[in-house]
Amino acid sequence: MFFLSEIEHTLRLPPYLLNRPLNEAIKGELDSLFLDKVIEKLGLCVSVYDIRSIDGGFIFPGDGASTYTVRFRLVMFRPFVGEVISARLKESSKDGLRLSLGFFDDIYVPVPLLASPNHSEPDPEHKNGIRWVWEYEGENYPIDGTDEIRFRVHNVSYPPVPLEQGKDSDEKESEQKDSKPFAPMVVTGSLDADGLGPISWWV
Amino acid sequence: MKILEHNAGALTNFEVLDLLKSRGAGKDPTRVIASVSASEFKVFDYLEQTPACNQTRDIIHKFVDECKKFDLAKAEILNVVNMRPSSAVEVYTIIEECDTRMEEKIDDFVEMILQVLPAHPSQAEPNEESGEGKEETVQ
């Protein structure tokens, strides 16, 4: 689930940080720059593991800030295909399920990858929601939000950043009205094997 | 930004949890003071609920040694350490072509997992309480 990746970056250290010890200031800048952000092909950055080297410290003409070339390692969340992960149900719709890990919410299980055979029924608890039910040997096993759901990673994709939609990123309300907010990393999971699905089905 | 090494090593859930704990992440009261950001706390919360919260480095080394008998891929060992399957069914999902590669050794494998890797606290509590109760009455 978690991997280390080594990155080299030219970091500009703003002048107001000059009174702090160098390591702390650089770590703070790296945190604000990379934490909780998705880097394509590497995954979601969870934490800065360590700083390997700091070079430079030159000040470019016309600029008040010093620029450092920093080599460091980041802890990235990057599930690999075939990995089994436990998550919680976030929402259930006619297209399938959406699962959440707390720090990462864009895990989708589309209908073809749900445990089959199955059928959907209107959810008694949520007004417009749909609940999926697995049929096995005559019994019905619903998928609801009570316990953890195990899924296997089917695919991880990094959709390109959309250029057209709503150029001002401040207008979040209008974006949400039309479509889902943009997800830079999407994990597709499958529940279609023995041992997958809510834990209560197998324990 | 240049990517020097795409994959400099895989980390088990335990190692990430250990890293966050060493930075100062803990349960509720310490949140405001620690130098750990909110997004790192979310990861910490998630990992606390997995079996990784009970593991130590020695346990993991021991487990990897024991796994050598079973000829497993590194990714499979990683998955098992993270998930701690407690029955054969759960092992089938994690290990590819389990039937052909493991055959009868599955039960040994599950047995070994149950012995070496500690269970998640919510699963282990009922056993421990009843065990301690019996010891007290005997003494």
TrEMBL record, chain A:
Q: What does this protein do?
A: DNA-dependent RNA polymerase which catalyzes the transcription of DNA into RNA using the four ribonucleoside triphosphates as substrates.
Listed name of the protein: DNA-directed RNA polymerase subunit
GO BP field: RNA splicing; transcription initiation at RNA polymerase III promoter
| UniProt keyword Phosphoprotein present | no
Could you tell me which Pfam families the record lists for this protein?
A: RNA_pol_Rbc25 (PF08292), SHS2_Rpb7-N (PF03876)
Give positions of region: Disordered: 160-194
**Ranges for the RNA polymerase III subunit Rpc25 domain?**
83-202
Give the source species.
Sesamum indicum (Oriental sesame)
Composition bias of kind Basic and acidic residues appears in 165-180
Sequence similarity: Belongs to the eukaryotic RPB7/RPC8 RNA polymerase subunit family.
GO CC, sorted alphabetically, is:
RNA polymerase III complex
The subcellular location is: Nucleus
Ranges of residues in domain RNA polymerase Rpb7-like N-terminal: 8-64
Q: Which domain of life is it from?
A: Eukaryota
Q: What is its main location?
A: nucleus
Keywords, A to Z, come to: DNA-directed RNA polymerase, Nucleus, Transcription
From TrEMBL, chain B:
User: A Pfam family for this UniProt protein?
Assistant: RNA_pol_Rpb4
**Can you tell which superkingdom this protein's organism belongs to?**
Eukaryota
Q: What is its main location?
A: nucleus
Q: What would be an example GO MF term here?
A: nucleotide binding
Ranges where the RNA polymerase Rpb4/RPC9 core domain occurs = 3-120
One Gene Ontology CC term in the entry: RNA polymerase III complex
Tell me the Gene Ontology biological-process terms attached to this UniProt entry: transcription initiation at RNA polymerase III promoter
Question: Is Nucleus one of the keywords?
Answer: yes
Regarding protein family, the annotation reads: Belongs to the eukaryotic RPC9 RNA polymerase subunit family.
Write the protein's name: DNA-directed RNA polymerase III subunit RPC9
UniProt organism field: Sesamum indicum (Oriental sesame)
Q: What is the lineage of its organism?
A: Eukaryota, Viridiplantae, Streptophyta, Embryophyta, Tracheophyta
